[in-house]
């Protein structure tokens, strides 16, 4: 699903071939910034996929503080999990290579 | 196609491309794509939260986990019942769910941003 906005950026790169050098460098900078923003947004969507189910029971008139804390923690714990998996996987691969 | 891909992003007939104009259009297109994705996910989540047993219409669909399964929700009937916390009708549930989904989106976005800044500060 995240591919949609990334495809826009890819199509833009093809367009850039038609520009002069200075314009192209400028555009490259701006595109890189937008790409970073798009990646951030895509990641937030992904967090919502996981954290909404974990943290929100029945939608009420507002999010209570328990739900808000749950959502924040969910993001942090997911990132911690990612880091833990990455580092352990590196160890596994390294051990496998000996 | 006249102008090739340039015509997608603000190229005029002469083929001269303006980075500012191009970026404006890119931002709009990305925003539209993001809105579509948000709606798609929000619809999915709120359907799950608000519609249990699908009925013949939105008003006649039960909400998930409600006691008295098999009883249809009828507009106005909630007022005559003495329940202090009568669950909202599906349409009200959907409206609340949408608002909460966007609140949650903002909370998650802020949390992620803070974490990124913390990680950068530690590098």
Automatic annotation (TrEMBL), chain A:
UniProt-listed Gene3D superfamilies: Mitochondrial import inner membrane translocase subunit tim13 like domains
Molecular-function GO terms, alphabetical: metal ion binding
Membrane topology, from the record: Peripheral membrane protein
SUPFAM superfamilies: Tim10-like
Transmembrane parts of this sequence: none
Tim10-like domain location: 31-91
Compartments reported by the entry: Mitochondrion inner membrane
Keywords associated with the record: Chaperone, Disulfide bond, Membrane, Metal-binding, Mitochondrion, Mitochondrion inner membrane, Protein transport, Translocation, Transport, Zinc
Gene Ontology biological process terms in this record: protein transport
Record note on domains: The twin CX3C motif contains 4 conserved Cys residues that form 2 disulfide bonds in the mitochondrial intermembrane space.
Family from the record: Belongs to the small Tim family.
Name by which UniProt lists this protein: Mitochondrial import inner membrane translocase subunit
Organism: Homo sapiens
Lineage of the species this protein comes from: Eukaryota, Metazoa, Chordata, Craniata, Vertebrata
């Amino acid at each position: 699903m995240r591919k949609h906005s990334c495809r826009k950026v890819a199509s833009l790169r093809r367009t850039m071939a038609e520009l002069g050098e200075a314009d192209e460098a400028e555009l490259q900078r701006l595109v890189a910034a937008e790409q970073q923003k798009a990646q951030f947004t895509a990641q937030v969507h992904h967090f919502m996929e996981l954290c909404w189910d974990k943290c929100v029971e029945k939608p009420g008139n507002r999010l209570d503080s328990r739900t808000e804390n749950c959502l924040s923690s969910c993001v942090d714990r997911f990132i911690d999990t990612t880091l833990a998996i990455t580092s352990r996987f590196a160890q596994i691969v390294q051990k496998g290579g000996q | 196609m006249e102008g090739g891909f340039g015509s997608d992003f603000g190229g005029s007939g002469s083929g001269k491309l303006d980075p500012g104009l191009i970026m404006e259009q890119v931002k709009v297109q990305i925003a539209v794509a993001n809105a579509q994705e948000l709606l798609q996910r929000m619809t999915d989540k709120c359907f799950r939260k608000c519609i249990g047993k699908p009925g013949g219409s939105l008003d006649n669909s039960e909400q998930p986990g409600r006691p008295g399964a098999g009883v249809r929700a009828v507009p106005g009937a909630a007022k005559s019942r003495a329940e202090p916390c009568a669950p909202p009708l599906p349409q009200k549930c959907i409206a609340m769910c949408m608002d909460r989904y966007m609140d949650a989106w903002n909370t998650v976005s802020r949390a992620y941003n803070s974490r990124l800044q913390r990680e950068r500060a530690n590098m």
